[in-house]
Amino acid sequence: MILPIAAYGLPVLRQVATDISPDYPDLQKIIQNLWETMYASGGVGLAAPQINQSIRVFVIDANPYSKEFKESTNFKKVFINAHIIKRTGEEWSLEEGCLSIPDIREEVSRPYNIRIKYVDEQFNMHDEVYEGIIARIIQHEYDHLDGVLFIDRINSLKRTLLKKKLSEITKGNIKTAYKMIFPRLK
Fold first, then answer.
1. Angstrom distance (rounded) from CA 48 to CA 57
2. What is residue 63's DSSP assignment?
3. Which phi-psi region, left, alpha or beta, contains residue 24 (left: φ > 0; alpha: ψ -120 to 50)?
4. Among the options 68, 95, 107, 141, which is catalytic?
């Protein structure tokens, strides 16, 4: 089922998501909803907090980057209870955006390499190392599990310049090609 994306300003995007167990209610349905919602919204990754679920689950399909970054070809995974163990390598900048913060794209610096532990849909444990664009996408989605948004990783002057746009998103004064849910205004 295609679900609305949580918009900037909703508290769920600032919460630290919780680890889950294999018997978490409707987990396979949640994962399917993440895939369907991500594809319908034109994303390459989507974290459970973005569909208003504060649990440590995200999905990635990096294939749209395959022309520019060969390592992203056919990279499609589900990450459950993910925890980045180590970030290494030189930081590199690339423009990022987020379905929860539409129409805003900014340069974000991130470490080139990561080591991450997580379980897959069958709750098999993985301890893996990624680099480049894959590490970047994972870090972006992983941040959602810790209540961090990509705009938190840009300098304060740029964030100040974005205040009006962010306020408009919070108020729902934006148009997107996908459904969104916005904070209730008082």
1. 5
2. G
3. beta
4. 141
The pLDDT tens digits for 73-103 are: 999 999 999 999 999 999 999 999 999 999 9
In whole angstroms, give the CA distance from residue 54 to residue 47.
Answer: 9
Q: Say if residue 180 is exposed, middle or buried (CB neighbours under 10 Å; 0-12, 13-18, 19+).
A: buried
Would you list the domain boundaries of the chain? Answer: 5-181
Tokens linked to 145: 């599990």
What does pTM read for this prediction? 0.96
Identify whether 141 is a catalytic site residue. yes
Fold classification of 5-181 is Peptide Deformylase (3.90.45)
- Contact by Cβ (8 Å): 136, 110: yes
Burial class (CB in 10 A: 0-12, 13-18, 19+), 21: exposed
